[in-house]
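QA checklist item 7 of 12: single-chain prediction sanity check.
[x] sequence parsed
[x] length recorded as 192
[x] structure emitted
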Amino acid sequence: MNMVFNSNIIKMKYLITSISLVFLLSSCFWWGDSANQSGLRLEARDWFKIQVPSSWQEIQSEDLPVPKQWSIELAFKSVSERQWYVNNIIVLSEVSENKKSSISLLKKSLISLKKEIQEFEILSQKEVTFTDESSGEIITYSGRYNSSTPRLVYVQTAMSCEWKDYFITLSLAESLESYDRYEYILETFSCQ
């Protein structure tokens, strides 16, 4: 039991490290002046699909650091540069032996995030129904990875598809008035 717990801690440290890749990506995003869901385009991969803002650019995997445990499935950035720090979306995956609920994956992630992120604060937690009719949870939290990184807001969900677990994270400026439109992006994630 102890070895399984230690293995899970190591996996979560890799997840935290991988999520910190979000800080290494460039630009601040805003895809329009309205808070509706227009302006999104479908990005489909072998095992999942998600809608992203049409104006965003994909970041090629060779331009990103390679996480030891997690695979980068998708990364996009905004083309709008409004502040010196980054805001973007990243989808990470890990091979899984069995399917898990979105809520159980996020709870596992939160345990590590609370230990790894400075000034960690949960802003909201809500249950959602994804576009494929599966249920899950979206967590919005703020914090910084270390004293030299800016405090950002993260909107995160997780989903288990067949033999892979996915963690989908948006990083956002703290100054935004609402995160609803960004939560909607995560709600569009579904298994194929």
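[x] summary fact logged: Helices lie at 2-19, 21-24, 102-116, 180-187.
[ ] second reviewer sign-off
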